[in-house]
Design brief:
Number of helices of chain A: 4
Oligomer: heterodimer
Pfam families (chain A): PP-binding
Helix content of chain B: 25-40%
CATH topology of one domain in chain B: Thiol Ester Dehydrase, Chain A
Low-confidence stretches of chain B: none
Number of domains of chain A: 1
CATH class of chain A: Mainly Alpha
Largest sheet of chain A: none
CATH class of one domain in chain B: Alpha Beta
Number of strands of chain B: 29
CATH architecture of chain A: Orthogonal Bundle
Largest interface: A-B, 14 and 17 residues
Protein name (chain A): Acyl carrier protein
Mean pLDDT of chain A: 84
Family (chain B): Belongs to the ATP-dependent AMP-binding enzyme family.
Helix content of chain A: 55-70%
CATH architecture of one domain in chain B: Roll
CATH topology of chain A: Non-ribosomal Peptide Synthetase Peptidyl Carrier Protein, Chain A
InterPro entries (chain B): AMP-bd_C_sf, AMP-dep_synth/lig_dom, ANL_N_sf, ApeI-like, HotDog_dom_sf
Mean pLDDT of chain B: 90
Strand order of the largest sheet of chain B: 8-10-11-12-13-14-18-17-16-15
CATH superfamily of one domain in chain B: Hotdog Thioesterase
Shape of chain B: globular
Organism (chain A): Corallococcus terminator
Radius of gyration of chain B: 25 Å
Structural class of chain B: alpha/beta
Distance between the termini of chain A: 14 Å
Chain lengths: 87, 570
């Protein structure tokens, strides 16, 4: 799980081109959006696409559910580990 | 003072054979030599047959002869700002040929010796020139000029300044490959019958030496005037200075002060742009904020109400449809006889459907107190456009970066902006410099700023800096595109990338000539894996054209060598 968290941190940094940030700088439990990393809704779209490409996870059409998955790196790792179709 | 000649009739009417035109290394080149050379160029252009030709030449006399020769052959001259391979390459699809300098795989036109020519008057409607300016989107924009636009501007300069300038020869720190240098150090002197120097003066020491023999006019830019060392012996030569001109960008109060103290006079500042040509001028001998005086024949409208402050221009130097006005990028207020400039117009941008004022963001950054100067620019980042900041930090800003890394300063600046801007508009990427990158015209072009975000450029800090040596700390980032495929599983920094970094960072610290000639004593002693903190020592020997580099780290020496460069500084 820790490994997957690290992988997802790298994916976030690479996908969103977050300069000056290393995986270890991201608190896995901290919110990704608004506070915390300060990401916005367009970043969420980009991130959704990247997760789909890397892990084959498909986001639900339920936006409340998605918001929960995107809450933090840890939440994303949970979601990916249970829904992934690619390894 | 001789009778001024119109550019259209310069070679037809002519001047006495022995009339001095230019000076090259102490030797005077007369009108007969000029006419002969122009005939040679005319023959070369006519034989080539193309309608559009790029022209780059280091020597201003040769450049002037080529320009007149081309015009008499009906050729439109495209003016590259420098002779870098990329600049010349970009012109390929626009021109039929290259004169003076050409891309490596083409032959440059050269004058045909002993050619004869009968020159007929030029048409004022001749498509004479295309110059380039960096547009707001960072792409160079082509600006075509008819001969009448250039010749009317020359007449205006003569009417304003001929009397005071007398027959003092023209010296210049600016390149004739830009419209300002072209007008002031080539076309105006030719029309006025005034001698000009065939070589520019890149360094302040050269200015002192060039002023020593006798009276002269100096055509300069703020980039040079703000860097006049007080240590040189200006006092013994400034009496020879009969006129001083500055254009290309705003002249700072410090530069103005330096001109008054060291050169003994305030320059004639000329306001205009590549598009508009000269619009107004002023000479701040006394008042600090003297207003701009509109040039004869030029009309301006400056807003009277607060929401209509944009300066618009109509003039014979501009090719506009009947009744049209040209809208500048500046805001101004009308005052009797002229106007006062109020700063740049707002640069507005739509980001993900939301309108953002880049100018307002720049002001907010500076008002936050952490940076002294800031430029905001849009960058394409995958699917979206995000904003990036290039800033010169104040001491407080540098302290933040030293204490907590670049990220702390980034975050602090984002926090300063957060109350005023949508969170999706907040800048994502930041570069901090000790000074804004400027070209020889003293401008920070959008292209130069955007280059700072090129992923191929490594992040670095200046450790030590001297005129001929810099010591940099360079970070080899894991994400550098140079590790892609080099090699899978065992990434090491390619040797060509090491040389490229030396050259790239060398260009940011020294005024290097455009062309790579060869390498010398190249050694690669140890591989460089991702994450290495490198020290790069660069030394520049201008006389021999050699840029030396040495890459070291805690692990010892990695690489060293010398890059030999040549060609004119554009």
């Amino acid at each position: 799980m820790l490994e997957l968290e690290h992988e997802i941190k790298r994916l976030v940094i690479e996908t969103l081109n977050l300069e000056d940030l290393k995986p270890d700088d991201i608190d896995p439990a901290a919110p990704l959006f608004v506070e915390g990393l300060g990401l916005d809704s367009i970043d969420a779209l980009e991130l959704g696409l990247a997760l789909q490409k890397s892990y084959g996870v498909v986001l639900a059409s339920d936006s409340k559910e998605n918001r929960r998955h995107f809450a933090s790196v840890r939440a994303l790792a949970d979601f990916v580990s249970t829904h992934r179709t690619k390894s | 003072m001789d009778e001024p000649l119109a550019l259209e009739h310069l070679l037809v009417h002519g001047r006495p054979a022995g009339h001095p035109v230019a000076r090259r290394e102490g030797q005077v080149l007369d009108f007969a030599a000029f006419r002969t050379r122009a005939a040679g160029w005319h023959a070369a252009f006519a034989a080539h047959g193309g309608q559009r030709c790029a022209l780059f030449h280091e020597d201003t006399f040769e450049f002037a002869a080529a320009l007149l020769g081309a015009w008499h052959a009906g050729v439109c001259i495209y003016l590259p700002a420098d002779a870098r391979p990329a600049t010349l390459d970009a012109l390929r699809s626009h021109v039929d040929g290259f004169a003076g300098r050409a891309p490596a795989d083409q032959t440059a036109l050269t004058p045909i010796p002993e050619a004869e020519a009968t020159f007929r008057p030029l048409s004022p409607d001749l498509a004479a020139l295309v110059v380039y300016t960096s547009g707001s989107n960072g792409q160079p924009t082509a600006i075509p000029k008819r001969l009448s636009q250039l010749s009317s501007e020359v007449v205006t300069l003569g009417a304003l300044f001929d009397e005071e300038a007398g027959d003092a020869p023209v010296l210049a720190t600016v390149s004739h490959q830009h419209i300002y240098g072209l007008l002031f150090r080539v076309l105006w002197p030719l029309a006025a019958g005034r001698l000009f120097d065939a070589h520019g003066l890149p360094y302040p020491e050269d200015i002192v030496a060039a002023l020593r023999p006798g009276p002269a006019l100096l055509v300069a830019s703020p980039a040079h005037l703000k860097r006049l060392p007080a240590s040189l012996d200006w006092a013994s030569v400034r009496g020879h200075l009969r006129g001083l001109f500055s254009s290309g960008g705003p002249l700072s109060p410090e530069a103005l002060q330096a001109c008054r103290e060291l050169l003994g006079r305030a320059p004639v500042e000329v306001y205009g742009s590549s598009e508009t040509g000269g619009v107004a001028w002023r000479r701040r001998d006394t008042e600090e904020a003297a207003s701009w005086r509109v040039m004869p024949g030029v009309e301006v409208r400056a807003g009277s109400s607060s929401d209509d402050e944009v300066l618009t221009v109509r003039s014979p130097h501009l090719d506009l449809p009947e009744g049209a006005w040209f809208t500048t990028e500046d805001r101004a207020r009308a005052v009797p006889g002229g106007f006062e400039l109020l700063g740049r117009r707002d640069r507005l941008l739509k980001l993900e459907e939301k309108r953002v004022s880049l100018s307002a963001m720049e002001r907010a950054l500076v008002e936050g107190g952490l940076v002294r100067e800031a430029r905001v620019l849009p960058l394409a980042d995958g699917h979206r456009v995000t904003l990036a900041v290039v800033a010169v930090p104040e001491a407080a800003g540098w302290r933040l970066q030293e204490a907590g890394g670049r990220r702390s300063l980034n975050q602090a600046l984002r926090e300063k902006l957060a109350p005023h801007f949508e969170s999706s508009a907040l800048p994502r990427r930041f570069r901090y410099l000790e000074a804004m990158p400027v070209n020889s015209q003293g401008k920070s072009t959008e292209a130069a700023l955007a280059a700072l975000f090129d992923p191929r450029r490594p992040p670095f800090q200046v450790l030590e800096r001297a005129p001929e040596r810099v010591l940099l700390s360079v970070e080899v980032q894991e994400g550098s595109p140079y590790f892609d495929g080099h090699f899978p599983g065992t990434p090491i920094l390619p040797g060509v990338a090491q040389v490229e970094w030396a050259l790239l960072l060398g260009r940011e610290h020294f005024a290097l000539p455009p062309d790579f000639l060869r390498m010398e004593t190249l050694k690669f002693q140890q591989v460089i894996p991702p994450g290495t903190q490198l020290t790069l020592e660069l030394t520049w020997a201008a006389e021999s054209g050699r840029l030396g580099f040495k890459l070291t780290s805690a692990a010892g020496a990695h690489a060293s060598g010398r890059i030999v460069l040549g060609g004119g500084v554009g």
